[in-house]
Amino acid sequence: MEPILNIENLTKIYGNIPNQTKALNGITFQVMPGEFLGIMGSSGSGKSTLLNCIAAVIQPSGGSIAIEGKNLSSLNGKAMAEYRGKKVGYLFQNFELLDNLTGCENILLPTSLHNLPEKESRLRLNRLAEYLEIVDVLDKFPMQMSGGQRQRVAAARAMILHPKMILADEPTGALDSKNAKNVMEKLSGLNRNEQATILMVTHDSNAASFCKRILFIQDGVIFHELRRGDETQPVFYKRILKVMAQLGGGSCNVL
Description:
This protein is an alpha/beta fold. It is built from eight helices and ten strands. The protein has helices at residues 47-54, 78-87, 103-113, 118-132, 147-159, 177-194, 205-208, 233-247, and strands spanning 5-14, 21-31, 36-40, 62-67, 70-71, 88-91, 165-169, 198-202, 213-218, 221-227. It has a six-stranded mixed beta sheet, with helices on both faces. A four-stranded antiparallel beta sheet has the order 2-1-4-5, with helices on one face.
């Protein structure tokens, strides 16, 4: 099986000499189809920079990023728009829903931008809404929803075009413990039942315990890796805490 994502010697430098900051310092890893991979690290470790490079929000200073064998640096114009719209779906910490659109309209926005037929769009909407338990908020505006409902609407929007990979940036960061658990269970279900490939950046050990594999970043380099294997989620959670203790971090939510 070929990797869906291949990162080779990725670097990102901010600023100019002599005041340069190396946010990413030669990171290399792969993500396989259907994997649920977590990226963990303390604030300033480089994890969000890494995700933004993969999302093509910022350009790396060196190295390469390839999705299904296609190097991002070779994409421009229409091909880049296609990548951002169909190859990856982005799930933000603060939801990034449009306040003047209903839940339904927010979810369907990518389908109109990428000319998906209305009938197919509605079929996908209904399936996602039922699974994510947001049928009752489709006609509501974001301000009328709870934080958990908004994040699940955002998840449906990220999934509606059936992207090759979901990029989740601290998806539980703005949620209380109950809603955080619900969102992570839904993401885990999408990974398990729909074989959705998910790459999630988080500093929350509870959220990370839903992953199958975790890469730990410190000072722009990968310094440790954990694989869940057949162990239970609570056992994996304790292993994560031990590694995070070395980073000087821990858990922000208790699920």
